[in-house]
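Intended use. Records like the one below are meant for learning the mapping from a protein sequence to its folded structure. Do not use them to infer anything beyond what is encoded.
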Amino acid sequence: MLFPAVLLLSLTLTYNKGAITLNTPIERVAKKLEIPVKNVESVKSLLDDRNTIPFIARYRKEMTGSLDEVQIGGIRDELERIEKLEDRRKTIIRSLKDLDELTEELKEQLDEATSVTELEDIYLPFRPKRKTRGDRAREKGLEPLANIIQEEKTGLDPVVLAKDYVEEDKGVEAIEDALAGARDIIAERINEDKKVREEMRRLFRNQGMITSRLKNPEVDEGEKYREYYDFNSKAKSSPSHRILAILRGEREDVLSVKVRPPQKVGLDRLSSLVRRGNTTSSEQVEQALQDCYTRLLAPSLETEIRNDLKERADGEAIAVFGENLEELLMSPPLGQVKTLGVDPGFRSGCKVASLNAHGDLLEAETIFPNKPQNKKNEAAAKVKRLVDKHKPEAVAIGDGTASRETEAFIRNLGSTEDLTTVRVREDGASVYSASEIAREEFPDQDVTVRGAVSIGRRLQDPLAELVKIDPKALGVGQYQHDVDQARLSDKLTEVVERCVNRVGVNVNTASRKLLTYVSGLGPTLAENVIEYRSKNGTIDDIEQLTEVPMIGSKTFEQAAGFLRIVNGDNPLDNSGVHPENYRIVEDMASDLGLDIFSMIGATGWRDDLSLESYVSTDVGIPTLRDILEELDKPGRDPRGEFSPFAFSEKVSTIDDMRQGMVLPGIVTNVTDFGAFVDIGIKTDGLLHISQLSEDYVSHPREVVSLNQRLDVKVIKIDKQRRRISLSLIF
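Structure written out for the chain above:
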């Protein structure tokens, strides 16, 4: 269960001008996300009943108010956050009871806390810890002296008072020993004061500066972190890529990093919170608060702020990665056409894989049209033979080493002049080639042939092929190895699931990996579907899924709407109409005097239909509209139409480039500092955020998106570092 029902029924008490407001976790989530309470309740109930997010978003719109996957995921995440908060609250209360420290006042404070940070501040003075300097001072009997000094009363000289606490047998051998012990107690009290920590935390968050300095120049041989050798910026407004870069530089021992407000600002603020006067005792209090700040409070709050910054930077980077991945996976497919997949190369040659319309390998060849062999005639003959034999309609050429040279060779062949020739990004192809999935698919082929197959399949259906590869290998991330890997993995898996279920999956041709991401299935059931297909042949009716081992009614409910059967017994099986709603379509057909086959793809009958007459307690207008859309275009692909793209023939290497050139390009990655653009050479150019618009842009995504085609101007070329700076042609 996502969230304990008992907890949801419990009420958290908060006080507002003496009045008690009842605030349930669901109400808190609804307020934070600005979603109606009833919709949050419905989502929670559906999630607890083991419904997947794609299923809820697509087939339970009446219950959720048509919330999308992102909103539903946000509700789930917020409920889980509250659950963790409540778990920590219970743990702290239990610990305080065991320590016999839980008072009614303390319990009330804990009940009112709305964050883990607040809970930890309340618990800090009582949390079991190693013996501190303050503890040792208390053991020496110095707490009464600390109490007197901290009051800062006029007329009391702490030096005179300290004489009474000098006891050699307790380890207090001199007046300064007594005063130092008292200051240690005061310093810890200040550090553990809840209100002090709240105010200082606010200062650190609002005025904290992230500062980096060069630590070990010999470690940064390529001067990768040069711009951070003497860097100072307000932490809360620093973009995520800077934070992640600086923290990586620190981990690699290139930089030393601090995240604090200026020392004087911090000390002055702490003094204003702690000091009570200007007496002879005040000097001791001032020394104690300075020690508290430098030894206890600042390091503790810096750790908190660093964690907050890292969490924020991770979140932004992961969000960018997720958006890029979604756009990549939703790239328009060329479709089921026979294809030649080409993995280009120089010395080792080019692998050419001939694929049928379903992406099955028919035959593979190795050709050497490029240097150093330059066997162009032999290569041309081999390609012609493959074309004549297998009649491909398209050629997919990987964009790696020797890509432009191989593309030019292919385009100039008379045998391929009528074929659609496309350069395909090959990021992750080598990862796939060596993977278990590739070995299962092609146990008798080497990695280079597998790579050529993957390139060809990416043109036919990017989604079906790319789901086989770890998203982190696809080249669309930003500092992906620096962020929380578990959090990143969860996000990317969610994105892949959303894309797969949005497009739909042909149950008879899908790979095991693709089926894994279908709502309700997963790896084991996907494997069971594959085994069922191999034993029983084509699945002709969606109800056959219930014959697959371990697919029960709940799994069928979750998966059936996202699976497609082409040319099956029931035309609705090739649509996004859920089997639970087939009866509605049958009723419509009966009322109109039509059969379902004649309704598919036709719209003339709509004028004679009243949707309201099919509304029931379970099915409302949103679902009925979705049904009509599916009947209008059954099995429609939401990814759009494929259209080929050609780079400038004038440029194939960085040496061909000149400042001021205007070139066509495709956006290959979007980060929070700019976009990378493929302009037809091995190195992508950077379209910095400052070059995206004549007006201010807060994020590149406001202007560009992955796979977008645009014209760019070359404004700077650094051949030594292989860096190209671009500007957008407005």
